[in-house]
Amino acid sequence: MFVPRVNLPEHMPSVEGRWFLIDDRQQVLVLDGRIPLGADAPIGVEAVHLLGLDDGTPVWAARAKAGFDDPDDAEWMNLRALYGRIPEQEWALAGRASQVLLWSRDHQYCGRCGTKNEPHSIDRAMECPTCKLQSYPRISPAVIMLVEREVAGGGTEALLAWGAQFPGRFYSALAGFVEPGESLEECVAREVREEVGIEVTDIHYFGSQPWPFPHSMMIGFQAKYASGDLVIQETEIVEAGWYTPDDLPPVPKGGMSIAGWLIEDWIKRMAGR
After folding, report:
1. Which pLDDT value is given to residue 273?
2. Sign of CA dihedral 182, 185, 191, 193
3. What is d(CA 110, CA 272) in angstroms, rounded to the nearest whole number?
4. CA distances from residue 73 to 23, 34, 70 in whole angstroms, order as listed
5. According to the model, what pLDDT value does residue 72 have?
6. Would you give the DSSP letter of residue 116?
7. Distances from the Cα of 122 to the Cαs of 9, 81, 160, 232, 251, in angstroms?
8. Could you give the C-alpha distances from 143 to 36, 58, 152, 208, 221, in angstroms and in order?
9. Helices (H) and strands (E) in the chain, counts
């Protein structure tokens, strides 16, 4: 079990730890197909952070220094390519490491008075020694929702959209970031209305996923079609439509993203009718 910590327990002996080493391109170092394990990092590092203990093993995140030769069997991989190459628990920790290192890089100085920040002694925070402003890791909440519409004869079809951010034809559930002062359910209804012009009802929670691209929390919902015709927001959506499990465009199914989990859950429910 992973337990977050910012300091090692007192009197903990020097033991081997797992090292998530990330370069300036946000690539993770893999040695011989594994995350490095050792008492020290296998290359030169800076900005070292303890993430916590994983079954008693220290887990470290560190920025790789430029100019060091890679060890034998070294491979640098981005987080998406890393999925499936290492255990899922380690992949999640790699995402955590990426977010912590980005945060520490972007909060070296106080945003209020400009003084150089210092690590907080007991919290995951940077603290200004002058004005005491504390800066915690940024997490941006975003909703992702699969909208379903009933069809004659039973079952539902799902609303899937080809987002403008995808270079090739690829469809997924709708998603968007939460605005200040907005509930998650209000965000679901607003984003669906803005992106495809319809109204939804029966919005209910599905699940959540930390999403380290670069620092989001994806909160999944399922919703039902209420009214309206599809009118896409062309700056965000290339194409959108209603699909049955037997007539799907290219979509994620399961895999590393909550979008795939939502779609896979719907497909299984339709198969079990």
Report:
1. 67
2. negative
3. 55
4. 17, 10, 8
5. 85
6. B
7. 12, 34, 44, 48, 43
8. 34, 33, 29, 9, 7
9. 4, 17
Instruction: Count Cβ atoms below 10 Å from residue 101 Cβ, excluding itself.
Output: 22
pLDDT, tens digit (0-9, with 9 covering 90-100), for 44-73: 999 999 999 999 999 999 999 988 788 889
Structure tokens at 143: 């909703």
160 pLDDT higher than 80: yes
Strands 171-172 and 126-127: unpaired
First to last CA, the chain: 37
DSSP state string for 186-255: HHHHHHHHHHH--EEEEEEEEEEEEETTTTEEEEEEEEEEEE------TTTEEEEEEE-TTS--S---ST
CB-based burial label for 208 (10 Å; 0-12, 13-18, 19+): middle
Model confidence band, residue 14 (pLDDT cutoffs 50, 70, 90): confident
- Give the H/E segment covering residue 184: helix 184-196
Q: Does 214 sit behind a cis peptide bond, omega within 30 degrees of 0 on the bond before it?
A: yes
- The answer to whether the CB of 16 falls within 8 A of the CB of 35 is no
Q: Which tokens go with 88?
A: 């899922």
List, for residues 195-231, the tens digit of each pLDDT value: 999 999 999 999 999 999 999 999 999 999 999 999 9
Query: What is d(CA 158, CA 172) in angstroms, rounded to the nearest whole number?
Result: 10
Provide the 3-class DSSP secondary structure of residue 258.
helix
pTM value surpassing 0.85 = yes
**Could you give the count of Cα atoms lying within 13 Å of 109 in the half-sphere of its Cβ?**
5
